[in-house]
Each structure stands twice: as structure tokens, then as C-alpha cells.
Amino acid sequence: MHTAGELQSKIEKGLEQLSTEKSPVELYEPIRYMLSLGGKRMRPLLVLMGCDMFKGNVEKAVPAALGIELFHNFTLLHDDIMDKAPLRRSKQTVHEKWNVNTAILSGDAMFVKSFQLMMMTDDSIVKEVVDIFSRTAIEVCEGQQLDMNFENHNDICIADYINMISCKTAVLLGTSLQIGALIGGASSAHARHLYNFGKNIGIAFQLQDDLLDVYGDKTKFGKQVGGDILSDKKTFLFLKALEVLDESSNKALEELYTKSKVNAQEKLESVISLFNKAHVKELAKDEMQHFHNNALQHFSEIHLPAENKKPLLDFCENLLVREI
Amino acid sequence: MHTAGELQSKIEKGLEQLSTEKSPVELYEPIRYMLSLGGKRMRPLLVLMGCDMFKGNVEKAVPAALGIELFHNFTLLHDDIMDKAPLRRSKQTVHEKWNVNTAILSGDAMFVKSFQLMMMTDDSIVKEVVDIFSRTAIEVCEGQQLDMNFENHNDICIADYINMISCKTAVLLGTSLQIGALIGGASSAHARHLYNFGKNIGIAFQLQDDLLDVYGDKTKFGKQVGGDILSDKKTFLFLKALEVLDESSNKALEELYTKSKVNAQEKLESVISLFNKAHVKELAKDEMQHFHNNALQHFSEIHLPAENKKPLLDFCENLLVREI
């Protein structure tokens, strides 16, 4: 078994060795730039950890790990255009630094490259791996579309929201583990349980993000409290409050989100007061626990020695231990 | 062997059966719309003809044929955004009918779908087929980038131009044939000759397009004469004229393209007069003939009975027989 640090250095080395020094530079320079912005490299790490857990040869999983990271960066690149985001990891986004056309086309090229990397998987499982990857890639597109739809729809329920965050972010975490496990020699059934483990952890992690935005300790997490509220984002907290509150509070909350002319501080205070009235903090923690339990249930179905499973379990539990 | 009509109906049937009736509709409706705009379906037809030529089971080549058509439509969809094109086949483009975000994301989803279709190829050759497809997909991205670069560069030579049209359009024609041949049971060497046949025919076809724009019989081809000139497009004719003409004529031609304030009719007449002075019509026909000969040379390396080769040869020769 490898330490997370060892696996991470394989990923960084692999990313450096990707041949992106090609012509035309206008196409490849933005790809290099995007990959140089860093990030936690969580998805490729999950691929390698999934492989390592089954005592597979992690070197064989490196191309797929890089493929997942390129795919993830491709989605960020195109999402940034759609969201008109000026910054990504405190640096200019590609469409800001170059232009929209460059960002579209470099993203497309990254996407092809991600498939090429997935195709380097051993012949015996390449179809299974690429089928899983493609299905997830489609779901991520669907998730982004659902997220954009939410801005204009007012009849979103909690189930819609869970489905959206599942497609947009959680399935790729599950898929990273599943593909790593398959390359590591896991049975399809075990790999599937690992997929469901990762997907449920991913949903819990996203719910935690929603919670931290409002109830996080800003000195600990370095984010401004209430960013989601100020940008009228329909998070779990907002949707749950609408589900729980009476009609007049509902109306007040919706007005604060859509028609409010009050200043930021007043808006934050009023919304959080309604959130508290609806006990959304506790309800969100319950919902997180529900998905966390689902994840652990699937994890327990994987019959391996505890020491094989420990590194991945510790890593994922660490994602969720922040006190709220 | 099948007639072109029989193969075409398999393609239309296959396109109808693609499951695009899915949710969210905002993602899938533009895909259905794009595919409903029609077009000649030349690329999927080449896949099936490549397979049929080797007496392969064309049913087995249908998914790859559809994959190539989806990929082609994905590139059109994203190119239309980049070119700010209002119309595609006389109908509104996707980014005009919906918006840019929808066009980006629906294009991405089409792209994934095209890989899924390619992955339905038989296990024994799926890696070879998808590797060829991916390499070509990257080249098409590179071709689009080169095309965009050309607008802002003034030092384009004929070799750059041939490379650009080769990447942007010709390689996909070659790849369609190559993939069809492999699925039909051709050796890698024969399939490679068919790729080079298609690529060279594609370059000749693109040069013919440049010629027709200026020297085509507009009553025959229904296009306005000189559209490329009026939009300052750096075609083979323009670049060849610059290569051939003396300095003062060169300067005049460049001024007509970049700084001209003359009206459209005067601009056309002046440019065509310079083109004629440079004999670009004859030079372009020579260049077409060169690539046509290259194509036939590769075709002759494929050792099959003449009757197997005839339908494809007739089809491709028909693309090039327009009198100019």
C-alpha cells in the first residue's frame, strides 16, 4: 500500500509528463495554464486509492487518474464560461485571460485527451472502464444543465437538488473510485459498491459545503459567511427552509432572495433568522448523516482486510469531520 | 454490396433510433434539433462504404457511422458559436435559437455520445478504432484553431493552408473510411491507404470549393459568386495569388482585402482580375489534380476486386467532377 503523498507525487509527475507542448500554441497553452492552477487533485487520488485498496499496480491506474483530472478540468473550463466566472483558484479564468472561443476549443481538446488517457487501460477491462467514464461524463453535463435551470425555476424540491449535486459533482467522485478499483482487479460488484460509497460521500460533502457557507467558522475556513445567500443560490438550506416554513415565512424568504432591496448585512441576518426558525442546520446535518450512512453501508459490502480499506476510509472521513 | 441509398437509409434509421428523448430537455432538445437539420450524411456514408468494400457486415459499422456523424455535428455546433454564425442549413444555429451556454453544453454531450457509439465496436478492434477517432478529433480541434489564427495572421503560406484544411475537414473523411474498413475486416495497412485516399480527396474537394466560389457557374451551384472574397477569407486562390504576383499587385490585393472602401461589385471585379493575372484558376486545378492523384495512388494499393472498389470510387469521383 502507498501513502497519499506517494500517490499524489505520481499524479503530479504524470501531469508534468503530459505532452501539451504542441502546436498550435493557442490551443495548448490554455490547457497547460488550466492544469498549472493546481487544485487538490482529489479525483485522480481517489482513482489511485481505489486501485491500491485492491493491491493493484497503481502505475497502471495513472493514465486513467490523469484522464479523470483532465475531464474535471475540462468541465471547470466550460462551466467558467457559462457562469461568466472571472477567477478560478484566484487566477484569471481561461476565457478571461484569452477569450471565449479559445476556452471552448481548448476545453474540447482536453476532453478528447481525457478519453485518450482512459483508452490506455488494459484491454480486458477497457470497455467497462470507458463505458463507466462516458456515462458519468453525460451525467456531469446533465448536472450542469440542471444547475443552470435552477436559476430560472421556482419549483425545485429537495429531491431535484440532491439529483443535481449528485450528477454535477458526486458521481465523478464515485466513478474515480470505481475505475481505480477495476484497474486494481476488483470485481464489478465490489467496484460498484465503491462507486456508491464515493457518490454518497460526495453528496454529504456538498451538503456540508452548503452548511459551511452559513454556519461555518469563517476564521477556520477562510470564506466569507453567506456567499451563497448573497448570490441567491438555491442551496439545500434554502430549499429545506421553504419546505418547512409556513406560508408567510416562505413568502418573506422568497422575497429576500428575489426582490430584496435591503443591504447585504440585513439580507444575511434576515435569511439566517428564517433558516434558524426552520432548523435547517439540524435538518441538513441529518441529511448529511443519511448519505454518510449510505456510504458506509456500501463500504461494508467490500470484503477486504481492514488495513486495505483504512487509508481510503480515513481520507473520506477527514473530508467530513469539520465541526459545524 | 449495398447501394448508397440502402446505406443512407440505415444511417437515417440509426439517427432516429438514437435515444435523445431524455431529461433535462434543455440539454437534449438542441441535440435533436441539430441532427434534424439534415445534411448530406457524407461521413457516416463513407464509414459504411469503407466497411462494405471489404464485404464486412455493415450493421456492425452503423454505431461508428453514427458516432462520426454526431462528432461532426458537435464540431459544427461549437464552430458556429466561435464564428458567430446565425444560420446553419438555412435554419437558426443552436446558440441563436437557444443561447451560447446551451450550445456549449449540448455540444459537449453530443461529443460524449459520439465516443459511446465508437465504443460499441467489436472488442478485437475497439482500441485501434477509438485511437484513430481520438487522434482525428484532436486534429479537428487543431484545424479549427489554425483557421481562427489565420484571420489575424498575415504570413500564411500555401503549406499552412493545406495543413489547416487537412486538419479541419479532410482527416475526418479519411478517418471515416479507415474506421469503416477496419470494422469490415480490412488489414491495418489497407485501412491506412483508404484513410490517405479519403484525406487527399478531402483536400482536393476543399480546393474545389475555393475554386467554385469564384469560378463556379452560379446558375448551376446556386451560390453567390465571390462570397469568400467579400468576407476576406484567405483561400487557396488568395494565398496563391500573393505567392505568384509581383510586389505592387500583391499590395493592391492585400489592400482590397483589408483596407478597401470600394463597393462589393468593384471589390469582386478587382480581386478576380488580380486572381486571373496570377492564373490562380489553373494553379488551383493543378493542385487539386495533385491531391486527386495522391488519392488514386493510395486507392491502387488496396488489393480488392474492381467491383468492390467501384461504388466508393464512383462516389468520390462524383464529388470532384463538377466542371470549372
Q: What would you note in describing this structure?
A:
Two copies of one chain form a homodimer. With 324 residues, chain A is mainly α. In chain A, 77% of the residues lie in helices and 1% in strands. In chain A, a hairpin with a 2-residue loop joins β1 and β2. In chain A, 46% of the residues are buried. Chains A and B meet through α4, α6 and α7 of A and α4, α6 and α7 of B.
Largest interface: A-B, 35 and 35 residues
Q: Tell me the overall shape of chain A.
A: globular
- Distance from N terminus to C terminus of chain A (CA atoms, Å) equals 33 Å
What is the strand arrangement across the widest sheet of chain A? 1-2
| DSSP strand count of chain A | 2
- Secondary-structure element sequence of chain A? HHHHEEHHHHHHHHHHHH
SS-derived structural category of chain A = mainly alpha
Assembly status = homodimer
Percentage of residues assigned to helices of chain A: over 70%
Determine the number of helices of chain A (DSSP H or I, runs of at least 4 residues).
16
**Proportion of strand residues of chain A:** under 5%
The major β-sheet of chain A equals: 2 strands, antiparallel
Low-confidence stretches of chain A: none
Average pLDDT reading of chain A = 93
Q: Specify Rg of chain A, calculated over alpha carbons.
A: 21 Å
